[in-house]
Write a structure and sequence with these properties.
Main location: membrane
Structural class: mainly alpha
Number of helices: 6
Radius of gyration: 28 Å
Distance between the termini: 29 Å
Function: Forms serotonin (5-hydroxytryptamine/5-HT3)-activated cation-selective channel complexes, which when activated cause fast, depolarizing responses in neurons.
InterPro entries: LGIC_TM_5-HT3 (IPR049944), Neur_channel (IPR006201), Neuro-gated_channel_TM_sf (IPR036719), Neuro_actylchol_rec (IPR038050), Neurotrans-gated_channel_TM (IPR006029)
Order of helices and strands: HHHHHH
Number of strands: 0
Helix content: over 70%
Membrane topology: Multi-pass membrane protein
Catalytic activity: Ca(2+)(in) = Ca(2+)(out)
């Protein structure tokens, strides 16, 4: 269980966490097969150690399911639609404030956007210089100028589309990060509550 909790510190967008938790689940399954023959057989019911193993297996399956959902959410962000407004409000605004979740901020999109604006401004200045300081006019511009303006416009549209895709990908990654932290805390509370309950039952049975 400790290794399963440590596995949450792997990046959710790398895919290594799924492989790690599947390996844990397979290893635990083999361990249960080996230990099942050594468990004491009782006519009253399942021994406490057997309940412990079964619940640990259930928690591992729940952890793996949560990891698959998060990886599916943050995978191929460029192909996903923009984040809905209600998701932004609940996950990116309300949840971090209520549960004290630190949101990760990236400067790369901002720098990219600034670089795009600078590049476009540079192309605009070049176009005005080639046009002798006058706004481009298709009536008096030579064919070469029309081709240059067409290429600059195509480049501008491509850069704007790339920036929009990066912004959508960044938002989905942020949503996945917040949900991952939130589900990790819920899972940690469940593990702690289960451990306390099991320890209490064991203490009561020892006294009785």
């Amino acid at each position: 269980m400790v290794m399963d909790i440590v596995g949450f510190y792997l990046p959710p967008d790398s895919g290594e966490r799924v492989s790690f938790k599947i390996t844990l689940l397979l290893g635990y399954s083999v361990f249960l097969i080996i230990v099942s023959d050594t468990l004491p057989a009782t006519a009253i019911g399942t021994p406490l150690i057997g309940v412990y193993f079964v619940v640990c297996m259930a928690l591992l399956v729940i952890s793996l399911t949560e990891t698959v959902l998060i990886v599916r959410l943050v995978h191929k962000q460029d192909l996903q639609p923009p984040v809905p407004h209600w998701v932004k409000y609940l996950v990116l605004e309300r949840a971090p404030a209520l549960f004290c979740i630190h949101k990760k901020h990236s400067l790369c999109p901002t720098l990219s956007s600034q670089g795009t604006d600078l590049e476009l401004s540079h192309h605009d200045r070049e176009g005005r210089l080639l046009g002798l300081g006058l706004p481009p006019s298709r009536d008096h511009a030579p064919p070469v100028m029309d081709n240059i303006l067409h290429e600059v416009t195509a480049i501008r549209h491509f850069l704007e589309k790339r920036d929009r895709c990066r912004e959508v990908a960044k938002e989905w990654l942020q949503v996945g990060y917040v949900l991952d932290v939130l589900l990790f805390r819920v899972y940690l509370v469940a593990v702690v509550a289960y451990s306390i309950t099991l320890g209490t039952l064991w203490s009561v049975w020892q006294v009785a």
